[in-house]
Amino acid sequence: MHFSNQGDYLHRRIETSKGAGIIMAIERLLTGSIRERVQDLMSTEDLIIESFKDIVKDELKAHIRNKIEEDPDLHAEIKEAVAYYFHQKARSVYAELKATRAATRLGLRLLPDELQGEVGEALIGLFEKELGTLLDKAL
Fold first, then answer.
1. Are residues 64 and 78 in contact, defined by beta-carbon separation less than 8 angstroms?
2. Helix (H, G, I), strand (E, B) or coil at 77
């Protein structure tokens, strides 16, 4: 072992033969292998826990479905509530679209005349593209 003093720091250099380097490499391989096995085991444990959660959810869903199917009035009420919810969501989206259209028209009116046509065409192209993407996802 050799020591050297550089500034305020003491540096140590360890010289090893080639044989010791091979032993350290083997130790690293073994340590890595054990670490990987433990990680694999932990991943398996996580998978088991997630699977168990899914099983419990499925059982709860089945129980809830059975209760709903036993009571036709409850089933009809839930169907009506869900339909009403989605209807209101659609109305909300429509209201947002109308507000966006009005705001866009106002913004175009505020632009100088020479820019209105160019910006308007760019916005139409943008809306067509976005609307096409939205419809593709919805359908």
1. no
2. helix
Please write the tens of the pLDDT for every residue from 34-43. Answer: 666 666 666 7
Neighbours of 6 (CB within 10 A): 7
3-class DSSP state of 74: helix
Only one residue has tokens 């044989």, namely 19
Mean pLDDT check: name the lowest of 59-68, 73-82, 125-134: 125-134
Local structure of residue 41 (DSSP, 8 states): H
Q: What is the DSSP annotation of 91-109?
A: HHHHHHHHHHHHHHHHHHH
Q: Give the burial class of 11: count Cβ atoms within 10 A of its Cβ; 0-12 exposed, 13-18 middle, 19 or more buried.
A: exposed
According to DSSP, residue 7 is labeled T
The amino acid at 12: R
Position 11 scores a pLDDT of: 46
Provide the 3-class DSSP secondary structure of residue 111.
coil
